[in-house]
Design brief:
Endonuclease Iii, domain 2; Endonuclease III, domain 1; mainly alpha; 60% helix
């Protein structure tokens, strides 16, 4: 898995514009955003991670992956709900995962076509899928399609990191974070990735 082609350019431009990002981009050399190249995997892992901490999500995901022969649409669609619940998934998340898997199996969801959509059109299409809200769709744009300019304002980790580095740890509103992030465009995904690293040096890959 390679970094996106734009990564080095984004780092240079962000470092010139923002002293916090200049420090963070030099703190984690050789690291960067990577895609697994598996649309179902990314969406499923994002659903598992909804509204829980990164560490909790990782524990649930590891149990989920171990309980199945493979993390793929067919095994997930065919899995017993009790098996999924035993991994630590809520009833709602288990239902979301099976609905997603069924959509892939039946061909209702066609991820190859999504690459031709711009960010706004793809966000609209993804959020029509049961269980996928704005945050999950943004994780897909960042981690699967590696779109360069996504700012996930609903992400608590991002907001915590911005508050820490730009406001002495005092919480900031979404509007305030958006204003701080304005100079990062068109590389807000890259800035977000480094701000996540400032809280957890181990990269999360969806």
């Amino acid at each position: 898995m390679k970094h996106p082609e734009y990564w080095d350019q984004a780092i240079r431009e962000l470092a010139r514009r923002d002293r916090v990002l200049k420090r963070l981009t030099t703190r984690y050399p050789g690291m960067g955003l990577r895609s697994r190249g598996d649309a179902f995997h990314t969406l499923a892992r994002s659903i598992v991670g909804q509204q829980i901490s990164v560490k909790a999500a990782d524990r649930v995901w590891q149990r989920f992956a171990a309980a199945l022969p493979k993390v793929a649409p067919e095994p997930v669609a065919a899995a017993d709900e009790a098996l999924l619940r035993s991994c630590g998934l809520s009833r709602q998340k288990a239902a979301y995962l099976q609905d997603l898997a069924t959509g892939f199996v039946e061909g209702r969801l066609r991820p190859r076509s999504w690459r031709t959509h711009d960010d706004a059109a793809l966000m609209a299409e993804l959020t029509r899928i049961k269980g996928i809200g704005r945050w999950t769709a943004e994780m897909f744009l960042i981690f699967h399609l590696m779109r360069p300019d996504v700012l996930p304002l609903d992400d608590l980790g991002l907001r915590r990191a911005v508050s820490l580095h730009y406001n002495g740890g005092t919480p900031l509103s979404k509007a305030e974070v958006r204003d701080i992030a304005e100079p990062w465009a068109p590389w807000r995904s890259v800035a977000t990735w480094y701000l996540w690293r400032s809280l957890d040096p181990v990269p999360v890959e969806y």
